[in-house]
Structure formats: structure tokens, C-alpha cells
Amino acid sequence: MSTSGAAIGHDGFDFVRIPQHENEEHTIQVTPRSLSRRRTINHQLSSEIAMSQDATRFLCAGTAASVSSFLYNPLDCLRIRWQVAAPQAAEQGLLQYGSQIVRTEGLVSGLWKPGLAANVSGMFLSAAIRFACYEQVRDSIVSDGTKNSLHMGAAGLVCGAFSYFVTSPFH
């Protein structure tokens, strides 16, 4: 490679080599052609790698609902077990009944594990469907391009009803 001309680097981009000292050369300048080529490649990569906004909304909503469902599953399990328990367990009180379950069965196997998979998967799908389809439904309801609270409420109602209809076996 010459010290004053353009050279093609190992990544295919053009670089101009400018000597800093008499016996030394460094790559310090990038030509406009190489920048243009780099922008084109970066744009192609980012469009191939990037998820759509709908997919991002789907995953974020589902993940948030799954985490909250995972964290609060012991309370939900305790509530359900207390409601279906014998009348004498209901007379004990919720805290005493919960502490009895933890003492006899343990926190994980008594309150956390039961129903966890169904609850987390149901909440993931329910929230993901609601958030992913909301904007499409809202925009299809709006005819003149102006959104108001009636349009947003109707879209939320339709998306929520659809998502709970689809995921009702999990809940």
C-alpha cells in the first residue's frame, strides 16, 4: 500500500493513509465513500436485526406481566386456597392460614409453585396480545384521524376482551 493513496482495509472500507512523521504512517482519515458505504451496511444490518414495534410491545408487555405474576403468585395462591378451604380454616384468618401452609408445606412448594406456570403464561399472553393489538384496533376505529377517549376506550375494551377470551384457559 502506498503512503499517500487510498487503501481498502480488511473490512472493505476505504481509508486514506496520511503520514504523521517522515517514517511513520497512521490511518486517521476516512473518505466520504467509505462513510457512505458504512452507513448503507449499518442501515441494512439494523433493519434486519431490529424488531418491529409490535413485536417489541408484545415482548415487553408479556415480560412485565410475567414478572409481576411470578412475584405475586404466592398471594394469589394463598387467596384461592383460603377461599376453597374448610370453614374452620377461613375462621383462622388469612395470615394464620398462610403461615400454617408455609410451616407444613414450605413457601415454594406450598404457595409459590402451585399454578405458577399457568398463571405466568396466561398473564404473558394476555398482556402481550392487549398491548400488541391496541394501536391497530384504535387506528382502525378512528375514521377521520382524530383520536378521542371514546375511540381509545373502545379499542382497549376490544383488545382486553379478545386477549382474555384467548387466554381464559390459563387463568
Q: What does the model show?
A:
The chain is 70% helix and 11% strand. By secondary structure, the chain is mainly alpha-helical. The chain has a three-stranded antiparallel beta sheet with strand order 1-2-3. Helix 6 packs antiparallel against helix 7.
List the helices and strands and how they pair.
Layout: E1 6-8, E2 14-21, E3 24-30, H1 32-49, H2 53-84, H3 87-92, H4 94-105, H5 107-112, H6 116-141, H7 149-167
Antiparallel strand pairs: 1-2, 2-3
Helix pairs in contact: 2-6, 6-7
Output the keywords.
single chain; 171 residues; mainly alpha; 11% strand; disordered N terminus
Radius of gyration (CA) equals: 30 Å
Shape: elongated
Which structural class fits the helix and strand makeup?
mainly alpha
The oligomerization state is single chain
Widest sheet, order of strands: 1-2-3
The average pLDDT score comes to 77
Q: What letter string, H or E per element, gives the SSE order?
A: EEEHHHHHHH
Regions with little confidence, pLDDT below 50 for 5+ residues: 1-6
Q: Helical element count? A: 7
In short:
The chain has 7 helices and 3 strands, in the order βββααααααα.
